[in-house]
Amino acid sequence: MADWTPADMPDLEGTTVVVTGANSGLGFEGTRAFARRGATVVMACRSVDRGEHAATEIRESAAADPDSDPDLDLDVRKCDLASLDSIRSFAEGLSADYDAVDVLCNNAGVMAIPRSETEDGFETQFGVNHLGHFALTGRLFDLLLTADGIDGKSAARSAASSRTGSGAARIVTQSSGAHEQGEMDFADLNWEESYGKWKAYGRSKLANLLFAYELQRRIDAADLGVRSVACHPGYADTDLQMRTARESGNPLMTVGMRLANAVFGQDAAVGVEPMLYAATADVDGGAYVEPGGFMNMRGHPTIGRSNDASYDRADARRLWEYSTEATGVTFPFGSEESLDP
Ligand SMILES: NC(=O)c1ccc[n+]([C@@H]2O[C@H](COP(=O)([O-])OP(=O)(O)OC[C@H]3O[C@@H](n4cnc5c(N)ncnc54)[C@H](OP(=O)(O)O)[C@@H]3O)[C@@H](O)[C@H]2O)c1
Asked: 59-108, pLDDT tens digit by residue?
């Protein structure tokens, strides 16, 4: 298990994988890995220019590598998670052009930026990291339901598993170890009374987990085969920390973050392994995949456990209700009554 690497991924020919934030960091490396295994990867990016630039880089690196198929299937599309309209347009476009989505990777994110609001008036970290992905998942759910899934392609999948039927799609939600610093305050989810940029990041990442686990409970209650799996990358050297520094306006923070990334950050190609594992390996719905190395901050993927707050069912249900009301997006299953108390 500790030695799992992307080389263990199954053949993904014929599958469709959607990756949010595909132009940078973990999303970029995830896109590259899925595409090299033969998947069609829909690169959901807030900037189509940056997405196309990233797609070109991925294609060029494949063309220069004798071990890679040079003809990667990449489809760059606009999806700004800070806009419910953009999410709706993206989902409508996908429904028009695709029959099914086998894997949705809810990966994009922002970290510890000064308070701002999305187009719809949500505090940006909560709005992009959680609410945007909630809305996107709901809007893509019909496409996920019609998918054959990775397991339809993989002979390695055990037919004995009763929890997850073969031929099922997956939703992978990228959280962070920072969820442990998150606290749900349902009286001020939009951070209007007070704002701490790190606290807001922690809460958005806790919300990712509450959502991922609640989604699995609702899927199970509706007896659907789809799996919702959560993961975190440990500490990876990406633009996430550099954007935090840029937006702080403090040049010293840029120097500090660059240094910290160089010393402590693992390569994004390794940081993305928990997401790749959650998307393609033999893993149960509701699992939490994390790096198995030093302090779960680096190394190859393993199954772990997030903090107790992330498994709080009452908070998860409240968050689901709030998110439904805030985004206006409903899922095609699961009334509250159908869930265990
Ligand atoms: N790197 C780490 O050590 C670490 C640790 C724990 C968790 N994570 C999580 O990993 C995920 C990926 O982060 P990363 O490290 O790969 O950072 P990154 O290199 O900064 O990538 C973040 C991606 O999210 C996109 N994004 C930001 N706002 C968006 C919006 N409104 N709509 C759509 N996309 C948007 C960015 O697009 P632009 O390029 O256009 O800004 C970028 O493609 C995040 O959810 C983060 O919380 C990372």
From this structure: 999 999 999 988 999 999 999 999 999 999 999 999 999 999 999 999 99
| Chain CA centroid to CA 246, Å | 23
The tally of domains found in the chain comes to 1
**201 catalytically annotated:** yes
Report CA(133)–ligand 1 centroid distance (Å): 12
Q: Which of 281, 280, 273 is nearest to 298 (CA)?
A: 273
- Please check whether residue 338 lies inside any domain of the structure: no
Does residue 333 belong to any structural domain of this protein?
Answer: no
Is 335 a domain residue? no
CATH of the domain at 261: 3.40.50.720
Measured in Å, residue 111 CA sits from the centre of ligand 1 at 8
Q: How far is CA 280 from CA 22, 275, 340, in A?
A: 18, 9, 29
Helix or strand or coil: residue 311? helix
> Which H/E stretch holds residue 18?
strand 16-20
For residue 188, the enclosing domain spans 11-328
- Which residue among 98, 195, 201, 322 is the active-site one? 201
Atom of ligand 1 lying closest to residue 82 CA:
31
Tokens of 155: 């002979």
Reduced DSSP (H G I as helix, E B as strand, rest coil) percent helix, strand, coil of the chain, to 5: 45, 15, 40
| Within a domain: 154 | yes
How confident is residue 225, by pLDDT bands cut at 50, 70 and 90? confident
